[in-house]
Design goal:
Elements lengths: L1 H63 L1 E4 L2 E4 L10 E2 L6 E3 L6 E4 L5 E5 L3 H11 L2
Antiparallel strand pairs: 1-2, 3-4, 4-5, 5-6
This protein binds zinc ion.
Zinc ion binds next to loops.
């Protein structure tokens, strides 16, 4: 009889511990669920914000007609192609390369682009492929 009572107490004790543990796991699960829901909501908001900002940047690019590329600015013509001319990022002045092996430099402020005179055609081709 005593062993039966002892067994019952033990089983009752362990089931109480088990119940406590299950409740703890359940609490943790609920907390994680709430956290995930918040994160998903935040993610959605950030995604919308990013979309808006991307749209704004695209609009500004089209409005200004200029695209920043390789340390210089290029003008997009109404035809959708880029003008074969290089403009300064700092002062919008015209940039020239004295020789095909020399980098483009601004006639007004001296700022230089990251490509050389002989590379203009390939740079314009890259632009036409990327921004059309
Ligand atoms: Zn300049």
């Amino acid at each position: 009889m005593l062993s039966i009572i002892e067994k019952l107490i033990n089983e009752h004790g362990s089931s109480a511990i088990l119940k406590e543990r299950l409740e703890l796991v359940d609490d943790k699960y609920r907390a994680l669920e709430a956290k995930l829901a918040n994160t998903e909501k935040e993610n959605e908001l950030l995604r919308k914000e990013l979309e808006d900002l991307r749209r704004q940047v695209e609009t500004q690019k089209i409005e200004s007609g200029f695209v920043d590329y390789k340390g210089a600015k290029f003008k997009k013509l109404p035809s959708g192609k880029f003008e074969e001319a290089v403009y300064c990022r700092n002062c919008n002045g015209g940039m020239i390369a004295l020789e095909s092996c020399m980098p483009f430099a601004c006639g007004s402020c001296g700022s230089t682009a990251s490509f050389k005179g002989g590379q203009l055609k390939s740079v314009i081709n890259e632009l036409n492929q990327e921004y059309t």
